[in-house]
Amino acid sequence: MSQPSPGPSLASRSWPRCGEDASPENPIGCPGIHVPGHTRCLAYLGDPERDAYLAGLTPGSDIDHRGTPFTGTLLGALLTRLRDPATGHPHLGDARFTSATFNGDAGFESAVFENGARFESATFKGDARFESATFESDARFESATFDRAVSVGPSVCAGRVRLSGAVFGGPVTLLFATRRLECRRTRWSSTAEVRLRYATVDFAHAVFEYPLTIAAEPDPFMVANGRQVAEDLVASAPGPEVRLASLRGVDAAHLVLSDVDLLECLFVGTVHLDQLRLEGVCTFDTVPPIVHWRSCSTFTRAFSSQPSPSSRGGPEPHLGTSG
Ligand SMILES: [Zn+2]
Predict the structure, then answer these.
(1) Gap from CA of 163 to ligand 1 centroid (Å)
(2) Which portions of the sequence form the region Disordered (predicted)?
(3) What is the CA(66)–ligand 1 centre distance, in A?
(4) How many independent structural domains does the chain possess?
């Protein structure tokens, strides 16, 4: 089984490591956390010990498999033990997969994360599938690496969806009802579609190499059986509108925005605004009396080919000048 390479963050990993399969090239060995009561991670436990551990899990159990390398089979065995018999959906309590490696497809379809989903610095070598997953607290994927396709949602997240620093190597679909989506310093190496409700979105210093669409979804998401996705978890949010907080430092050449509120958006350092594509109704702030930002003329040109905001019933376009 291939092991995650010990990255620079290894020293900061505080959990007791399994250390199996050490070699001159990888002297630290497997970074998986010990299964409670053992000195190996779930991947390297003997079959009887692994079966006994899995047998002790019930739907909603807390899970801590930081650093652990998963095959598709091992992840399937884990999630099977967490399935609610009434719905067939896996229920995870406090789910910690920080720095784990998923060597096969990671199938978390319809999973319910009851108390935080932690996948920071995890590596997904196959497809990452979180269709219809529910996040009752934060969904944390900071600095995760997705080598292949990613499909999340339609999902509701009661906390923040935190993707900052993540690297996406394949096509991405994110469908989320959530109050906050953080995508600072993300890298997107294929096409991506981000459809949202209720969210304030931060894409500061993100890098897109292919078209990336950020769109507001006017109606509640539907799942395959025609049922609406329940939005109780975000019911206290002001409204389903989607606001862009920042495009700082972004090359907008591949960016498509649809029905997004740009009233508070920071554009400092954004380039190729003339190639930014706007669809539907995107609202802007009013023009300040004095604009000091050098590239404002570029920004103004960006809208010369669009229906003027006033013709759409909105105010004149404006660029935030603060940093
Ligand atoms: Zn291990």
Answers:
(1) 26
(2) 1-23, 301-323
(3) 10
(4) 2
Residue 123 sits in the same domain as residue 204: yes
**Ligand 1 centroid distance, CA of 35 (Å):** 9
Tell me the mean pLDDT per 10 residues along the chain, length 323.
42 81 93 97 97 97 98 97 96 98 96 97 98 96 98 96 98 97 98 97 95 96 86 85 96 96 93 92 66 39 39 38 35
Which residues lie closer than 8 Å to 275 by C-beta, 6 or more apart?
252, 253, 254, 302
Domain termination site, one of 170, 195, 212: 212
Surrounding ion ligand 1 within 5 Å at CB are 18, 20, 30, 32, 41, 43-44
Cβ–Cβ < 8 Å for 30, 41: yes
Q: How far is the CA of 200 from the centre of ligand 1 (A)?
A: 39
Domain enclosing residue 47, as ranges:
16-56
Quick one: pLDDT at residue 286? 61
Distance 22 CA to ligand 1 centre (A): 10
In a domain, 119, yes or no: yes
Is the residue at 76 inside a domain? yes
**Distance from Cα 121 to the centre of ligand 1, integer Å:** 17
- Ligand 1 centroid distance, CA of 125 (Å): 17
Tell me the two tokens of residue 294.
């050098």
Q: Is residue 306 part of a domain?
A: no
- Same domain membership, residue 181 and residue 79: yes
Q: Report residue 302 as tokens.
A: 């960006």
Do 66 and 203 lie in one domain? The reply is yes
Single pTM value for the model:
0.85
Q: Report whether the peptide linkage leading into residue 27 is cis, meaning its omega lies within 30 degrees of zero.
A: no
Residue 231 structure tokens: 């939005």
CA of 70 to the centre of ligand 1 (A): 10
Question: How buried is residue 150: exposed, middle or buried, by Cβ count under 10 Å (0-12/13-18/19+)?
Answer: buried
